[in-house]
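Weekly modeling sync, notes
Attendees: S.R. (lead), two postdocs, one rotation student

Agenda item 3: backlog of single-chain predictions. S.R. asked that every request posted to the team notebook include the full sequence so nobody has to chase files. The rotation student volunteered to paste the first one in as an example of the format we agreed on. Action items at the bottom.

Example entry:
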Amino acid sequence: MGKTILLIEQSQEGLQHTGEVLELASYEVLHAHNGAQGIEMAIQSFPDLILCDIMMPELDGFGILHILKKNPLTERIPFIFMSEKDKKGDFRKGMSAGADDYLIKPFEDVNFLEAVEMQLQKMDLQQAEVRKNVHSSDEFPEETRGLNELQVFLADKYRTIAYKKKQVLFSEGELPTCLYYINYGKVKVFKTDHSGNEYITHISREGEYIGYSNLLEGTAYSTTAEAMEDAQVCTIRNQDFLFLLHHNHDIANQFIKMLSSDLIQQEIRMLSLAYHSVRKRVAEALLLFQSKYHPEGINSLEMVISREDLSNLVGASKETVIRVLSDFKDEQLVKTTKNSITILNFNKLMRMKN
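Predicted structure, as returned to the notebook:
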C-alpha cells in the first residue's frame, strides 16, 4: 500500500492540483478544506505526512501545527508548510514551530515531490531505527490482529439490540455497564440543564462507539444517548472491553485516539459557541450532519433533521435557527421541507463568514 498524505488547503484549485500531482506519484491523498477538519482527519487517519497551507480563516497553519504537536498521537507525523509568503521571518516562525519543511508557492512539481519523498524517507529511517531496538514483537502489534479480534468479539459473543427512534441507550447519572457499538442508525449524545434544555455534544453513526470515556474513567455518565432514528446497537460488557484494552495494544491505541479526538472537538465546539455568530454555527451544524448522513462526501442529498435537534446542536433557540434556515433557503444554500434539509451549496456553507 502506498503512503498516505493529508493535504490541508482551503483553495479548491490548490487542493485539486496538488492532490493530482501526489496521486500521479502513487500516494493516497486525504483532503481537508479547513483547520478543524484537518486536525480531525490527522487523528483519525494517522497519515504518513501532512501538507498544510498557512493562510486559512479561523485556524491557520500555525494553529494546526501547534495542536498536532501537543498531541502524542500526531506529534511525530512529518509536517510541511506551503505558503505564498516568502519572508525570512515567516520561514523562521514555521520552522521554529516544529515544521519539517517550508515550501514557497508556486513550486515546481518535481521539487515538490522531492521534498515530500525526503520527509517520508526520513520517517522510514527513524521508524526502522526504533524497531531495531525493540526486542519483543508484542511492542508492535499488527493493526489487523487487534481490529480483527474486536470484530470477533462483536460477531461471536454479543447480540444486536434494536432501538426505536427517541429510545434512550443510557442516561446522565447512570453508571456504565457496557460499551456501545452502533451497527446501524444514528445516536445523539446530549447534556440537559436544570431547565430541561438539551445541548447536543456529539452525533454518532454506524461504525462508531459511544459511552467509552465514562467507562474508562469509572464515573457516571455525564450525558444521555438517544436514538435519532431506528438503530441497531451492540453492547459489550465492561469486563470484556477492559480485558481487550489490557491485552491488545492496538485496540487500546484506537481508543486513545478517539478520546484525544473528542477532546479536540470539544475545544473547537466551545470556541465556536464563544466566538461564532448563530449564522455560522448553523452552517457548521449542517456540515456536521452532512458528514454523518453522507460520509462519502456526496452533496445535494436529503438529511432528515428535526429543527429541535438542529437548534440543540447549534446552541440557539429553535425560532432563531428557523429564521437562519429561511435566510439560507432564500440564498439557495439549502432546500428545506417540514422534516428534512438538503445542502445545495456545500462550499458556501463551508466558507461562511462570521
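Discussion: group reviewed the output briefly. The longest helix spans residues 249-275.
Action items: rotation student to repeat for the remaining queue; S.R. to check formatting next week.
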